[in-house]
């Protein structure tokens, strides 16, 4: 058994409550998946036959409709993608995927097949509880973002999303919080549900207010408290 894999998985989303022997069972069912930047993990309509825990890199999940896409979220180290598979794999038939998942940057992940996951969920109640909690949190974040997407100026909506990203990708330093993630204005536009030009103006507005600072394709949140007030319309 690859010990570092077992140790890493124990710190991953949905797996923290498992006993050592249960983690080893999960680990034994996983394989290493390497996805190059922009490489596709699955497409809308594809069979949902595996879920992944990110070892390194970032995966992005999008909803694609009528030629337009909205970024659902970005998943980094230790995060899970496709956890709903644990509850949707019915009678050995995988569900159809409704989202597009691809690598935001070069990514290494531990993948588990749907039928193996379904069997583990039946045998290991703590796994069902853990993955269920992951899906509840994912839904909560989406529901929190929806009202923001439907109202308020673009800069306030963008402030909300930047703070959300900081929870996962933020690294504190003397200036504030660095988003350790390369993001284009198009990426930010997709997250907020606006066009790229509007996203660019929103970034300029937050920079003028000294709330954020650009470093190449990375952003520094200079004053998270003030940014939170901006996100709430203050």
Detailed description of the structure:
With 234 residues, the chain is an alpha+beta fold. The chain has two domains: 3-147, Jelly Rolls (Sandwich), CATH 2.60.120; 151-231, Arc Repressor Mutant, subunit A (Orthogonal Bundle), CATH 1.10.10. The chain is built from nine helices and ten strands. The protein has helices at 3-9, 20-28, 85-88, 114-123, 125-150, 154-169, 185-192, 196-208, 224-231, and strands at 30-35, 40-42, 50-65, 68-75, 80-81, 100-113, 170-173, 176-179, 212-215, 218-221. The strands form two sheets. Strands 1, 2, 3, 4, 5 and 6 form a six-stranded antiparallel β-sheet that branches. A four-stranded antiparallel β-sheet has the order 7-8-10-9.
Give a concise summary.
By secondary structure, the protein is of the alpha+beta class.
Key features of this structure:
43% helix, Jelly Rolls, 234 residues, alpha+beta, four-stranded antiparallel β-sheet
């Amino acid at each position: 058994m690859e010990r570092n894999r077992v140790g890493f998985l124990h710190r991953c989303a949905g797996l923290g409550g498992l006993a050592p022997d249960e983690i080893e069972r999960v680990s034994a069912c996983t394989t290493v998946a390497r996805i190059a930047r922009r490489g596709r993990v699955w497409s809308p309509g594809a069979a949902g036959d595996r879920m992944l825990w990110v070892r390194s890199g970032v995966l992005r999940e999008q909803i694609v409709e009528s030629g337009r896409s909205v970024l659902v979220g970005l998943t980094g180290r230790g995060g899970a993608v496709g956890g709903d598979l644990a509850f949707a794999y019915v009678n050995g038939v995988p569900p159809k995927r409704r989202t597009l998942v691809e690598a935001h940057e070069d990514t290494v992940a531990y993948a588990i097949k749907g039928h193996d996951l379904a069997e583990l969920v039946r045998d290991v109640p703590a796994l069902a509880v853990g993955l269920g909690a992951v899906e509840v949190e994912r839904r909560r974040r989406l529901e929190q973002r929806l009202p923001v997407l439907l109202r308020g100026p673009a800069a306030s909506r963008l402030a909300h999303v930047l703070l959300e990203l900081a929870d996962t990708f933020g690294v504190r330093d003397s200036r504030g919080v660095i988003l350790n993630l390369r993001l284009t204005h198009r990426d930010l536009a997709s997250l907020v549900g606006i066009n790229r030009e509007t996203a660019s103006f929103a970034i300029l507005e937050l920079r003028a207010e000294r709330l954020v600072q650009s470093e190449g394709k990375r952003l520094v949140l200079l004053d998270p408290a003030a940014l939170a007030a901006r996100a709430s319309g203050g």
